Amino acid sequence: MSRLPNQQRAALSPELTDLPEPRKSTKSNRSFLLWLKSWKRTFQQEKYLYLLALPGLLFFIIFKYVPLWGLTLAFTEYSPYLGLLKSEWVGLKHFQSFFTNPDFWLLFRNTIAISFLNIAFFFPMPIIISLLLNELKNLSFKKWVQTAIYLPHFLSWVVIVGICFLTLSGSGIVNKLIAESGGQPINFLTNADTFWAMLTAQTIWKETGWGTIIFLAALAGINPELYEAARMDGANRWRQTLSVTIPGIKGTIIILLILRLGQVLDIGFEHIYLMSSSTVTEVADVFDTYAYRVGIQNGRFSFATAVGIFKSVVGLILVVSANRLAKKFGEEGVY
Q1: Are 264 and 115 in contact (CB under 8 A)?
Q2: pLDDT of residue 2
Q3: Model pTM?
Q4: Looking at the DSSP assignment, which residues form a beta bridge with residue 89?
Q5: For position 23, what pLDDT does the model report?
Q6: What is the Cα–Cα distance from 303 to 287, expressed in whole angstroms?
Q7: How far apart are CA 293 and CA 288, in angstroms?
Q8: Residues 43, 50: contact at Cβ < 8 Å?
C-alpha cells in the first residue's frame, strides 16, 4: 500500500496521506555499494597479493604517516615535561624567528649551491656511465666494471670521509707526493674555496655506480628493432645514441630529475657534518647542520621541526611545479 500514489492512498484511508514517501536510493549510495561489492570480489580473488603488500603498507603507516602528528611541534613551545598536548601553542613564532635570523640567507646560499652542484655534475654522471656501459660488448668486463663502481655505495660516509682525511690531510698521501715533487702542500680540508667541489666529488665517487642501476634497466627496455632501423638508415653508434638511446630513457631521466628537485634543501646531514670544521663553517653550514646545532643540541625541538617543515614545503613546491612543467611539454611526469 505504501507504493500507491497519494490520491489512491487518500481514497483508501485518509490517515495514510500523512505518511512520508519511502526513501529512494541515491546515485551516490548505489555507486558506493557497487564499489564495495567490486572491492570485496577483488579482495577475495587477490587476497594473497594484499597480504604480500601488508608489510610495506604497515611500514608507511607507522614510519611515514603516524609521525606526521609530530609536525605540530613547530607550532608549540614544546616542553618534554608537559608533553605535546599540554605545551604552549605559539603559532608561527618559530618560523618568524627562523626567517628573520641573520644566518638564514647564508644557510640558504650554501644549501642551494651544494645542491646545484650535485644536480649539475652528479646527476648526469650515472646517465653517462650507463651509456658507456651499454656500449661494452665484453659481458665479463662489463660486469666487473659494474661491480667495481657499485661498491662505494655500500660504504658509510664515515668511511668515505676517513679515506678523504687520510689522503688529503696535511700529512696525507697526496700532500706527501706534492712535497716530494718540490711543490707546496695544499690545505684541501681547510680550504673554503674547494669545500663545495670536494663534497660534490665525494658524492660522485660514492653514488654514481648505484645510480646507474635504474638507467641500465631503462636502456634494456629499448626495442632493439629501433637500432636496426637506425643502422639501415646509415646511423653510426653516436647517431644511434642521440636518436634512439637518449630518447628511449628520456622519461626516466625526467622522473628522476623531478624527484631530485624535491631534495634540493635536503642534501644530507651526515656527509656535511663529518666534513665540517671551524675553518669552513661559512661555506659548510646548511639547514640540516643548523637545525641540529641550534635546535637539537640546544633543546629547541620546536625550532628544529620548523626548519624541517620549511625544507619539506620547498621540496613539495618544486616537485609539483616541475611535474606540471614536464606535463606541459608532453612528458608523463611523476603523477
Answers
A1: yes
A2: 45
A3: 0.79
A4: 76
A5: 52
A6: 12
A7: 9
A8: yes
